[in-house]
Design goal:
By secondary structure, the protein is of the alpha+beta class. It has 3 domains: 4-103, 3-Layer(aba) Sandwich (Rossmann fold), CATH 3.40.50; 132-201, ATP-grasp fold, A domain (Dna Ligase, domain 1, 2-Layer Sandwich), CATH 3.30.1490.20; 207-446, D-amino Acid Aminotransferase, Chain A, domain 1 (2-Layer Sandwich), CATH 3.30.470. 35% of the residues lie in helices and 26% in strands. It contains 15 helices and 20 strands. The chain has helices at residues 11-23, 40-44, 63-73, 89-97, 107-114, 116-125, 141-151, 174-192, 249-266, 296-303, 307-315, 394-407, 417-423, 427-430, 438-446, and strands at 4-7, 27-33, 47-52, 77-79, 101-102, 155-159, 169-171, 197-201, 207-216, 221-233, 236-242, 269-279, 282-289, 332-339, 351-352, 355-357, 364-368, 375-376, 383-391, 409-411. The strands form 5 sheets. It has an 8-stranded antiparallel β-sheet, sandwiched between helices. A 5-stranded parallel β-sheet has the order 3-2-1-4-5. α4 links the parallel β4 and β5 (101-102). α4 packs antiparallel against α5 and α7 packs across α8 (174-192). The termini are far apart.
């Protein structure tokens, strides 16, 4: 097991990892920018190192400063959390060159899944169902029109190196395709420095289903069920739940077994999430995230397995602590991402939190790094915290969530709490009858 882990992140995920390390008896080091000097994870860590000014590129994305912090403090491993450098293959390679363990997959696996075209090829090779579309990057408009005609309109054009909804455009006819292709390429080049795009069939009313997987890097793999992340705005997840209201036990087992077998065959090490669109009983691969997800607590709630403990165990060479036959699913869990944003326009609302009170009681968990008097800086994402609720079934979970949202108090900044209070009382949400377009339609109708 590791002696000292450096946590290369901030906010609630840094605090989440820090707590796991303390439970395992591992010393902790956190890095921070000058803007985060008073952050909760900095206060609670065994050691802290300031690595730069507020801009991420000069602090949390500064690989050389982070490696230097490891060497100064004697950290023998780095946990990257999510975001920032968590899926940076170069970071993983540099750590390895300095004999520091990256708590995550290999640089080769990060690169493989970070390129959306290569990820799709790999998924097909591993037997994972994929959306019909181009086998690689589309070279020109003529090829794009040929592929679109073969798979049928509407189609979606996606950036090969993309994510977060950037470089994605829908074409519903051949007349739309030229503009969509040019726009997607332009956005992809500006956002990622790579204008390569590919084409897939556009699904009209899919759900977003993701499968949590773990590999030991030695040929073993398991799945820990699915999460339904269909409530999204601009391709950003807002509400996640497990298990999905749309799947039955047979479908869950079928897609889970496919994913577990795939990570085993790949020799994958650590946590990963294989993401799908799901429509009319069929799963279609989107991408694989080679890191811990923001929404991992809902999986922990229904399995009782600490995913960060498992990450650390696997990275240290201890293998998986569970076999597939040991994993059981209990009840239902929902996570709401509480952001410092306007509840309808989602405009960021940085500022000082004057009053902060979290709900409590059976089945309630709040992952947050803020406190009364904490100032939310304008430099990073606006996540205040995550409210995770667990119940014996979805009905109990929804009732408990309604109560927890009523108890949650954040004063001093605008938050998305009012949006969630509306959603929990909506009949479609109560019935689990929604898809990836539902929330944006709802917000447009409410405007």
């Amino acid at each position: 097991m590791f002696q000292k882990i450096l946590i290369a992140n901030r906010g609630e995920i840094a605090l989440r990892v820090l707590r796991a390390c303390k439970e395992l008896g591992i010393q902790t080091v956190v890095v921070h920018s000058t803007a985060d000097a008073d952050a909760m994870h900095v206060r609670l860590a065994d050691e802290s190192v300031c690595i730069g000014p507020p801009p991420s590129r000069e602090s949390y994305l500064n690989i050389h400063q982070i490696v230097a912090a490891c060497e100064i403090t004697g950290a023998d491993a780095v946990h990257p959390g999510y975001g920032f450098l968590s899926e940076n293959a170069k970071f993983s390679d540099i750590l390895a060159a300095h004999n520091i363990t990256f708590i995550g997959p290999t640089g080769d696996h990060i690169r493989m899944m970070g390129d959306k075209i290569e990820a799709k090829r790999t998924a097909k090779r591993l037997g994972i169902p994929c959306v019909p579309g181009s086998d690689g990057a589309v070279s020109d408009e003529r090829e794009a029109k040929r592929i679109a005609a073969e798979i049928g309109y509407p189609v979606i054009i996606k950036a090969s190196a993309g994510g977060g909804g950037r470089g994605m455009k829908v074409a519903r006819s051949e007349e739309d395709l030229s503009v969509a292709l040019a726009t997607a390429r332009s956005e992809a080049g500006a956002a990622f420095g790579d204008d390569a795009v590919y084409i897939e069939k556009y699904l009209e009313k899919p759900r977003h289903i993701e499968i949590q997987v773990f590999g030991d890097g030695m040929g073993a793999g398991v799945h820990l069920g699915e999460r339904d992340c269909s409530l999204q705005r601009r391709h950003q997840k807002v509400w996640e739940e497990a298990n999905s209201p749309a799947l039955n036990a047979e479908e869950r087992a079928r897609i889970g077994e496919i994913c577990a077998r795939a990570v085993a065959d790949l020799g994958y090490s650590g946590a990963g999430t294989i993401e799908f669109l799901y429509e009319d009983g069929q799963f279609y691969f989107i991408e694989m995230n080679t890191r811990l997800q923001v929404e991992h607590p809902v999986t922990e709630a229904i399995t009782g397995i600490d995913l960060v403990h498992e990450q650390i165990r696997v990275a240290s060479g201890g293998g998986l602590s569970v076999r597939q036959q040991d994993i059981r699913f209990h009840g239902h869990a929902i996570e709401c991402r509480i952001n410092a944003e306007h509840p309808r326009t989602f405009t960021p609302s940085p500022g000082t939190i004057t009053h902060f009170h979290t709900p409590g009681g059976l089945g309630i968990r709040v992952d947050s790094g803020v406190y009364s008097g904490y100032r939310i800086p304008p430099y990073y994402d606006s996540l205040i915290g995550k409210l995770i609720v667990h119940g014996r079934n979805r009905v109990e979970c929804m009732m408990r969530l309604r109560r927890a949202l009523d108890e949650f108090v954040v004063d001093g900044v605008q938050t998305t709490l009012p949006l969630f209070r509306d959603l929990v009382g909506n009949p479609d949400i109560a019935n689990g009858d929604y898809d990836i377009h539902w929330l944006e339609k709802y917000l447009a109708a409410e405007a």
